[in-house]
């Protein structure tokens, strides 16, 4: 079975470890780094002998241990006409700890994680599933205008959030309410936003699912794809300058990696040595566009090296592996002040959104397979059951409880009034400029003349 | 296909090859909103009458694209999710019919969609790019403003990218919030070297899109997504174009001139109807092309009525209404009997729950018409 978004085969994964053997090119770049202290010239073309034993030993063409410090790059020489292949001979293997059946893989890099934490991860994943099912239904019934689920990707957001510090700033795309949920955003708060009611922190201005919370260090979601990535780099740079032991984490899809903002952000992060985690949910699709029409090469993980950014590839449907990866990545980012790219391989089980019918562009059996055989929630539950920490009674009870909580949250949020009209004009600027005061005045007199044109659940 | 047929069976042309008939074009008011004029074919061909089909706006766009792909082998249609038919179904069936080399998905990168389109067009092709929402055209602004618009001028006409057309759905739909509602036309009207075209109905969309694609200048073509399904009218099956830079009088009147474009005209028509009940006769003009715009027609109308109202969904300040107001004030100053009136979106980001308050509604327009007449 192949993931739609990457070429790693599952058979190969099982025997692999978190840190795969460094490739030839990595060894070479390490050799360059270790010899770079012998470069003294600044910008002037110069050749120097450096320590012998270059790692490019395969092509012993006599000058492999010479390095040229061009202003644009430092490189050894070869007299062979060679190209760098478009993809490495082997795809980067995908790290996982649990197999498809939730069994611990022998010798795997199991993170330090206690029972309470894993149970909390699992409970959040179940709550997210419940919220998604019921909110999706509510949208279908016309109770709010739009919704978008995280089905199939619950492990990525929740297990990664568990591995971050709650003080780390998060810059999400839109399919990451799991991070907020982990940090304590309540079902009421989610429902308030989707209903655009008087308690919505975004003041009813944005479409459903555009959550944000200053208290929980989660920048408000914005629809344009990939725009949040450079923001995360700027915020990370601020943490570094302020000497705070924090990083920022930005989440995005496979599609987002095509935007210029992804490339700019990666490069900035590398050059400015910013402690930022780039967490890509490679779920195989950007709306209808399959990942193989989005990019060539070995998925997303390979792009890190091009920017000089350390990278991981992890099975996004294995909550424990995601936790271990993000935990390790965060430590590197914060302690070494460096960006890290994480590609989490997964599958978008739901439609892109309530505006989409994915039956038009992908096969039902593909969806069905991922839904029934590869569900990250089921995988973690099986492991928990194997450990003796969970059973089907507990599961049924949890599911019934979360269902009721979601329904109750909607019942509370739905009937509330919408945001008051005054909030149409505030926050455009820090204070309301005179031309907007004038427009507000005119609008209010129009509304007074034509009350029937305007909704009654928006208080005037 | 339940087409309305005037005489000879031509319905099948929709699905078979359509020969371009370039001389059968450019007749002002060939199609009006109320009364579709069925024209005779040019001489040389067997005498036929145009066949029409009842189509909504997205299907009319689809027909225009199909017509071009069929009549010009050097034409290409591309953009995000275009392959399966596009998120608004405008490209449905085209990849199956013309192959994935001429109709294709692009990676999610608007600046590259535009840059690629410029290169493709500069090699003598018709590059028809789709930006999924007008709200997402901004990453491509550099390519449009600094490249497409200046390609001809900066090279002394050695090179041009006139074969480029960018389509993007724009405007309010009732629940789009900030990023699925905006009307960014004014940004592009500030850029010499490109044309900006906005149709108001299916038949207009087909004719204006075909004209935009065949125009030897880069064109930004905004489609009113509110009308994709809602607006339905008889659309000629054949290949036809409607003239660019030519506004159209949708209804004649004597007391005030109303100028608008795209979906806003639907509301303006309703306001005209209500105004006429109160004895006010409105002349309604669809500008159709925003730059270069048909100033002569608007001037002539204002010289007749003595009053002007412009209405658009985009924010008031710096909207294209401001340009029309300033120009007409300059040229018709002595004839104006009231200040030029603008009924536009508010100077706020486009808001979700406050959309009904933000919008330039029928009653706002009607109030402004009355105020202008009473002035
Ligand atoms: C700049 C921009 N262009 C286009 C869109 C429309 N759009 C919304 S989501 C999406 C696909 C994103 O795919 P991906 O990054 O893989 O995230 P996923 O939905 O799979 O989680 C597109 C094209 C947008 N929101 N912003
Ligand atoms: Mg995706």
Automatic annotation (TrEMBL), chain A:
| Subcellular locations according to the entry | Mitochondrion matrix
Where composition is biased (Low complexity), the residues are: 23-41
Q: Which GO terms fall under biological process for this protein?
A: branched-chain amino acid catabolic process
The chemistry this enzyme catalyses reads: N(6)-[(R)-lipoyl]-L-lysyl-[protein] + 3-methyl-2-oxobutanoate + H(+) = N(6)-[(R)-S(8)-2-methylpropanoyldihydrolipoyl]-L-lysyl-[protein] + CO2
Judged by the first EC level, this protein's enzyme class is: oxidoreductase
Cofactors (names): thiamine diphosphate
Q: What is its main location?
A: mitochondrion
Recorded GO cellular component terms are: mitochondrial matrix
Which GO terms label this protein's molecular function in UniProt? branched-chain 2-oxo acid dehydrogenase activity; metal ion binding
Question: What residues does the Dehydrogenase E1 component domain cover?
Answer: 123-414
Ordered alphabetically, the record's keywords are: Metal-binding, Mitochondrion, Oxidoreductase, Potassium, Transit peptide
Give the enzyme's EC designation. 1.2.4.4
Claim: Nucleotide-binding is one of the keywords in the record = no
**Alphabetized InterPro entries for the sequence:** Alpha-ketoacid_DH_E1_comp, DH_E1, THDP-binding
**Domain of life (superkingdom):** Eukaryota
Annotated stretches, region: Disordered: 21-41, 50-69
Q: Which family does it belong to?
A: Belongs to the BCKDHA family.
Its assembly, as annotated, is:
Heterotetramer of alpha and beta chains.
| Protein name per UniProt | 3-methyl-2-oxobutanoate dehydrogenase (2-methylpropanoyl-transferring)
Origin organism of this chain? Ceratodon purpureus (Fire moss)
From TrEMBL, chain B:
Q: Which domain of life is it from?
A: Eukaryota
Swiss-Prot/TrEMBL cofactor(s): thiamine diphosphate
Could you list the residue ranges forming a coiled coil in this record?
none
Q: Which SMART domains does this chain map to? A: Transket_pyr
Annotated transmembrane regions: none
Give yes or no: UniProt keyword Cell wall biogenesis/degradation: no
Q: Which GO terms describe its cellular component?
A: mitochondrial matrix
Q: Pfam families given for it?
A: Transket_pyr, Transketolase_C
Where does the UniProt entry say this protein principally localizes?
A: mitochondrion
InterPro entries linked? THDP-binding, Transketo_C/PFOR_II, Transketolase-like_Pyr-bd, Transketolase_C
One Gene Ontology biological process: response to nutrient
Task: Quote one Gene Ontology molecular function term.
Answer: branched-chain 2-oxo acid dehydrogenase activity
Question: Where does the record place it?
Answer: Mitochondrion matrix
- EC number(s) recorded for this UniProt protein: 1.2.4.4
As its record notes, the protein acts as a catalyst of: N(6)-[(R)-lipoyl]-L-lysyl-[protein] + 3-methyl-2-oxobutanoate + H(+) = N(6)-[(R)-S(8)-2-methylpropanoyldihydrolipoyl]-L-lysyl-[protein] + CO2
Gene3D superfamilies to which the protein is assigned, alphabetical = 3.40.50.920, 3.40.50.970
The alphabetized UniProt keywords are:
Mitochondrion, Oxidoreductase, Transit peptide
Q: What is this protein called?
A: 3-methyl-2-oxobutanoate dehydrogenase (2-methylpropanoyl-transferring)
Q: Which organism is it from?
A: Ceratodon purpureus
Its lineage opens with:
Eukaryota, Viridiplantae, Streptophyta, Embryophyta, Bryophyta
């Amino acid at each position: 079975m192949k993931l739609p978004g990457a070429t790693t085969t599952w058979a190969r994964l099982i025997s692999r470890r978190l840190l795969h053997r460094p490739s030839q090119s990595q060894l070479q770049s390490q050799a360059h780094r270790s010899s770079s202290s012998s470069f003294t010239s600044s910008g002037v073309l110069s050749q120097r002998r450096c320590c012998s034993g270059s790692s490019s030993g395969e092509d012993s063409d006599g000058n492999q241990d010479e390095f040229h410090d061009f202003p644009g790059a430092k490189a050894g020489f070869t007299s062979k006409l060679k190209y760098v292949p478009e993809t490495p001979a082997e795809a980067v293997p995908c790290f996982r700890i649990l197999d498809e059946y939730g069994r611990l893989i022998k010798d795997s890099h199991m993170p330090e994680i206690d029972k309470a934490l894993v149970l909390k991860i699992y409970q959040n994943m179940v709550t997210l599933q419940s919220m998604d099912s019921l909110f999706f239904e509510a949208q279908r019934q016309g109770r709010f205008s739009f919704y978008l689920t995280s089905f199939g990707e619950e492990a990525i957001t929740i297990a990664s959030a568990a591995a971050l510090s709650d003080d780390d700033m998060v810059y999400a795309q839109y399919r990451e309410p799991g991070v907020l949920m982990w940090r304590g955003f309540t079902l009421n708060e989610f429902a308030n936003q989707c209903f655009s009611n008087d308690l919505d922190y975004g003041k009813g201005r944005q479409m459903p699912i555009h959550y944000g919370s200053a208290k929980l260090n989660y920048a408000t979601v914005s629809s344009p794809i990939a725009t949040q990535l450079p923001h995360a780099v700027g915020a990370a740079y601020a943490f570094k300058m302020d000497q705070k032991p924090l990083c920022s984490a930005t989440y995005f899809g496979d599609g987002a990696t095509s935007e210029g903002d992804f490339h700019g952000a990666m490069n900035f992060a590398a050059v400015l040595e910013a402690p930022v985690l780039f967490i890509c949910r490679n779920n195989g699709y950007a709306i209808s566009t399959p990942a193989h029409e989005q990019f060539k090469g070995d998925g997303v993980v390979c792009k890190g090296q091009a920017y000089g950014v350390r990278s991981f590839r992890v099975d996004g449907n294995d909550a424990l592996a995601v936790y271990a990866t993000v935990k390790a990545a965060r430590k590197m980012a914060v302690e070494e002040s460096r960006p890290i790219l994480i590609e989490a391989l997964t599958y978008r089980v739901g439609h892109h959104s309530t505006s989409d019918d994915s039956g038009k562009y992908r096969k039902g059996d593909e969806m069905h397979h991922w839904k029934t055989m590869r569900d990250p929630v089921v995988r973690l539950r099986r492991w928990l059951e194997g450990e003796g920490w969970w059973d089907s009674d507990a599961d049924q009870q949890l599911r019934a409880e979360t269902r009721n909580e979601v329904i109750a949250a909607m019942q509370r949020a739905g009937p509330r009034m919408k945001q008051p009209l005054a909030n149409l004009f505030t926050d455009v600027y820090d204070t309301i400029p005179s031309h907007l005061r004038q427009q507000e005045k005119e609008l209010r007199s129009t509304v007074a003349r034509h009350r029937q044109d305007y909704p009654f659940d928006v208080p005037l | 296909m339940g087409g309305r047929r005037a005489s000879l069976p031509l319905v099948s042309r929709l699905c078979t090859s359509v020969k371009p008939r370039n001389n059968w074009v450019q007749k002002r008011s060939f199609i009006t909103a109320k009364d579709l004029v069925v024209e005779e074919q040019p001489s040389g061909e067997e005498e036929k009458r145009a066949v029409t089909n009842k189509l909504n706006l997205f299907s009319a766009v689809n027909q225009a694209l199909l017509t071009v792909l069929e009549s010009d082998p050097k034409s290409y249609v591309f953009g995000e999710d275009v392959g399966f038919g596009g998120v608004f179904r405008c490209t449905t069936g085209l990849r199956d019919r013309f192959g994935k080399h001429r109709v294709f998905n692009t990676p999610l990168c608007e600046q590259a969609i535009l840059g690629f389109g410029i290169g493709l067009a500069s090699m003598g092709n018709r590059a028809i790019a789709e930006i999924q929402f007008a709200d997402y055209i901004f990453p491509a602004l550099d390519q449009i403003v600094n490249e497409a618009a200046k390609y001809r001028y900066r090279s002394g006409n050695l090179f041009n990218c006139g074969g480029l057309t960018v389509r993007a759905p724009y405007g309010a739909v009732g629940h789009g919030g900030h990023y699925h509602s905006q009307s960014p036309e004014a940004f592009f009207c500030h850029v010499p070297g490109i044309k900006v075209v906005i149709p108001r109905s299916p038949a207009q969309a087909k004719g204006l899109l075909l004209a935009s694609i065949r125009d030897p200048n880069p064109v930004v073509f905004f489609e009113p997504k509110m009308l994709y399904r809602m607006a339905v009218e008889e659309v000629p099956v054949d290949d036809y174009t409607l003239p660019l830079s030519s506004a159209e009088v949708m209804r004649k009147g004597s007391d005030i001139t109303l100028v608008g474009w795209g979906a806003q005209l639907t509301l303006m028509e309703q306001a005209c109807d209500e105004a006429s009940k109160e004895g006010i006769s409105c002349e309604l003009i669809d500008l159709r092309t925003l730059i270069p715009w048909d100033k002569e027609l608007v001037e002539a109308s204002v010289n007749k009525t003595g009053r002007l109202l412009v209405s658009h969904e985009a924010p008031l300040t710096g909207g294209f209404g401001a340009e029309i107001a300033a120009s007409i004030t300059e040229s018709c100053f002595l004839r104006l009997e009231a200040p030029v009136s603008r009924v536009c979106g508010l100077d706020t980001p486009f808001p979700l729950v406050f959309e009904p308050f933000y919008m330039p509604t029928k009653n706002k327009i009607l109030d402004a018409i009355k105020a202008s007449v009473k002035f």
